[in-house]
Design brief:
Length: 175
């Protein structure tokens, strides 16, 4: 084999350099570029998840504040007897404010269930339907939070506008 001329050596060198550049580009640069793109996508998706988690965390902080407010409302701060007497007086005052006449009011025994206490009261009263509904609405909403366990409304006479109502109210408190 004869020695290569300077021109041939230059052409061979350029060919080898071109092949090396092609191999380097397809073997190193392209895989690195693809790997960089997938890493960027993973980083973006992780950032989005992190943003969502931060927003959930912020909402949970406000939810915890609201939880603490309701916990303060439903926390039992006195003995069962004191709570029952305050519940009875609360019902009487709401009835008096709404012009309702309570014929009979009997407290039931306090039920101690798992992590809460259930205070129940049986009522018998009479009044017009609108007054009864307003009375029940007030008792079910803030600040009273009573539940209606049982409700029976009867018309006592066909001509009288008043109705007889028997109901069982209860309130749940956390000791």
């Amino acid at each position: 084999m004869r020695p290569l001329s300077n021109r041939e050596r230059s052409i061979l060198f350029l060919c080898i350099l071109t092949v090396l550049i092609f191999i380097g580009y397809n073997g190193v640069v392209q895989p690195l570029r693809r790997k960089t793109e997938t890493l960027k996508e993973r980083v973006n998706s992780s950032e989005q998840k992190l943003k969502k988690q931060f927003s959930v965390l912020e909402k949970s902080k406000s939810g915890n504040k609201e939880y603490e407010q309701y916990l303060a409302i439903f926390r039992q701060s006195a003995s069962d007897g004191q709570i029952m007497s305050s519940i009875l007086s609360e019902i009487e005052s709401v009835a008096r404010e709404n012009g309702m006449r309570i014929a009979d009011m009997k407290p039931k025994k306090v039920k101690h269930i798992d992590f809460y206490n259930n205070f129940s009261v049986t009522l018998a009263m009479s009044g017009q339907l609108t007054d009864i509904v307003k009375f029940l609405y007030i008792l079910q909403n803030q600040p009273h939070f009573f539940n209606i366990e049982e409700l029976v409304i009867e018309k006592n006479s066909p001509r009288a506008p008043t109705l007889d109502c028997r109901l069982v109210l209860d309130r749940i408190l956390i000791p």
